[in-house]
Recover the amino acids of this structure.
């Protein structure tokens, strides 16, 4: 296995980084983290713009959560690239704040002032310190399973592994399948590995004589083969209470593996909580750099389609950004499938999915099914705060002026829609507070509300970066749901109701872009979005976009078609409509024909979910001035989202 040259000793403060105020975040889920957990935390400090690592740290052992927002690490093992040997840390105390959904953060045990953001479900916490600005990391903790033993550990497993060794050309990942026999024997694991400098060329690496042994619930995988093998030495292994998920890493190195007990007839479905490490080495041979990344987030898998979100940190490049995306999976997949550059394996019940990056896109990630939520009275689903256009999962940030749908039960005693503008803040006795400010309401139903995030919410949130949502139904309050807030939360309105179909984009003659009436390279188009944030001139909350002096987005907005940048000539409020923005852009001339991915981006968030049909190059385009007002049908179609409210 590749090793960094050791020197020096462990230094617990990597860098001082901003931390959210725990008082501003819903902590009603603190009891979801309670008791003793096994954990592993691996951090990589980036040295330069090439992607070299200047320092790596691993910390693993036991962590005790008190259920009230405090944790302690009595003793844990440390592995530091600046040290000649492993060490220990003792008596580390920290804090955490977890919401009702399991979403939250805890103070980073090896970096003063930094927080690890992530989610907990069914006794497993996964997360990353995505806001620190200096290092990438992955943190996983699992409720201790002292009954785990050689006998209970048996069956077929898939193991995905990643080693970040210093030089991005030498970093690698590997995947292997193995069978534990319940007696300490595994035998041979045939790994397939990819190296950063090797592009898409796989390397087959057999590991022979592999054994395992459990003591006090902690497993040790022994890889006796020495030399430049995919995995070597002793790997410390932890296992989830249900036995479906395993993770860990070397006892003396800063690597990480995740694994899943595989099913033969498994299926996916529902909401999942995610985290991962990655290296994009696709530019290494041409531009000479690779991007080390770390992330956490969530995804929703339904009927072969995925809508996902990840909070992604690229330390030396773009920093941290909110990314939403779509993907597909075979609904009949039997325990595994490959999509694009990632191979996925999942458990028999579909509750755990582990991903492995195919070169040159190295990486490991894990997705754990979220618990189900329900409530009584006026209840706001803690995972039900969603962008009304993209339908991005609840972990995606929100923005000023964003049109959102809030899900729950008992939210309204009736179904009403406000057909006039400006939208009011009381509809059928229903009110919505965002950081204690009344939000404009578009429609209400017992199970869902559409509201606009008030302008000024981000500024009022200050350094806490938190927006708190609460519903009042005839004065009866709901629970409070917290969400992070950013400059933008772009979402493209789509012709279907799931956020991942054809984008609502018009030719300049008002006809809709469709496969039968596709966009042409070089053509100027008009699209409808939400979540572009603050505007100038400013408007009052709920008011429609002005038709005389157009109100432009103050954030820089980008559009990509099929991965190529489009020229954006206008981004701002849609005239005469409330909660909607419009964008005017020109299709890049080099884009290929057919269905192309439509990406909408702000300075801190991107959304790649919808599709734009493109015609073959060479078709003529009629010139016409951009119309100031879109058809009313756009509003009716875009906001319905499968709900048919009665006109007010």
């Amino acid at each position: 296995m590749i090793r960094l040259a050791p020197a020096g000793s462990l230094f617990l403060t990597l860098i001082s980084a901003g931390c959210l105020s725990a008082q501003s975040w819903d902590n009603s889920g603190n009891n979801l983290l309670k008791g003793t957990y096994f954990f592993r935390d691996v951090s990589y400090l980036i040295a330069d713009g090439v992607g070299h690592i200047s320092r790596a740290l691993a910390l693993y052992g036991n962590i005790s959560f008190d259920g009230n927002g405090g944790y302690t690490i009595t003793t844990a093992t440390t592995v530091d690239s600046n040290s000649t040997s492993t060490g220990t840390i003792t008596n580390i105390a920290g804090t955490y704040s977890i919401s009702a959904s399991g979403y939250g953060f805890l103070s980073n045990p090896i970096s003063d002032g930094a927080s690890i953001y992530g989610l907990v479900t069914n006794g497993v916490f996964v997360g990353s310190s995505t806001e620190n600005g200096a290092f990438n990391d992955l943190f996983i903790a699992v409720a201790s399973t002292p009954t785990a033993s050689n006998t209970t550990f048996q069956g077929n497993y898939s193991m995905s592994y990643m080693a970040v060794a210093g030089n991005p050309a030498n970093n690698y990942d590997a995947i292997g399948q193995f069978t534990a026999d319940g007696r300490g024997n595994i035998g041979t694991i045939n790994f397939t590995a990819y190296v950063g400098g090797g592009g898409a060329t796989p390397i087959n690496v057999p590991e022979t004589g592999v054994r395992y042994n459990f003591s006090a619930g902690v497993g040790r995988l022994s890889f006796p083969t020495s030399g430049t093998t995919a995995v070597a030495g002793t790997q410390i292994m932890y296992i989830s209470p249900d036995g479906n998920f395993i993770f860990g890493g070397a006892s003396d190195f800063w690597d990480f593996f995740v694994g899943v007990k595989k099913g033969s007839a498994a299926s996916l479905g529902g909401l999942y909580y995610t985290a991962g490490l990655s290296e994009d080495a696709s530019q290494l041979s041409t531009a000479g750099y690779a991007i080390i990344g770390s992330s956490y987030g969530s995804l929703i898998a339904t009927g072969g389609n995925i809508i996902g979100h990840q909070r992604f940190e690229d330390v030396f490049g773009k920093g941290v950004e909110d990314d939403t995306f779509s993907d597909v999976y075979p609904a009949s997949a039997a325990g595994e499938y490959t999509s694009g550059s990632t191979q996925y394996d999942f458990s028999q019940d579909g509750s755990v999915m582990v991903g492995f990056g195919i070169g040159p896109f190295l990486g490991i990630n894990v997705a754990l099914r979220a618990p189900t939520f329900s409530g009584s009275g006026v209840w706001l689903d803690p995972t039900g705060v969603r962008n009304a256009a993209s339908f991005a999962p609840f972990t995606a940030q929100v923005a000023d002026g964003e049109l959102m749908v809030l899900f729950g039960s008992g939210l309204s005693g009736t179904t009403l829609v406000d057909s006039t503008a400006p939208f009011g803040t009381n509809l059928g006795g229903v009110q919505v507070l965002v950081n204690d400010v009344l939000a404009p309401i578009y429609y209400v139903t017992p199970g869902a509300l559409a509201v606009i995030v008030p302008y000024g919410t981000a500024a009022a949130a200050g350094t806490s970066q938190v927006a708190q949502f609460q519903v009042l139904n005839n004065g009866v309050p709901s629970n409070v749901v917290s969400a992070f807030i950013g400059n933008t939360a772009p979402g493209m309105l789509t012709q279907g109701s799931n956020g991942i179909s054809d984008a609502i984009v018009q030719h300049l003659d008002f006809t809709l872009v469709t496969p039968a009436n596709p966009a042409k390279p070089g053509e100027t188009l008009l699209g409808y979005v939400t979540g572009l944030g603050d505007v100038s001139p400013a408007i009052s909350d709920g008011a429609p976009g002005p038709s005389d002096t157009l109100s432009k987005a103050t954030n820089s907005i980008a559009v990509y078609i099929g991965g190529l940048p489009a020229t954006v000539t206008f981004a701002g409020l849609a005239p005469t409509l409330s909660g909607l923005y419009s964008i005017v852009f020109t299709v890049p001339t080099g884009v290929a024909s057919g269905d192309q991915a439509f990406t909408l981006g702000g300075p801190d968030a991107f959304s790649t979910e919808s599709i734009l049909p493109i015609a073959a190059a060479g078709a003529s385009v009629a010139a016409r001035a951009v119309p100031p007002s879109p058809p009313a049908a756009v509003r009716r179609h875009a906001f319905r989202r499968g709900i048919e409210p009665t006109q007010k």
About this structure: Confidence is low (pLDDT under 50) at residues 1-23, 621-648. Residues 26-141 form a domain with the Lipocalin fold (CATH 2.40.128). The chain has two helices and 44 strands. Residues 473 and 492 are 30 Å apart (CA to CA).
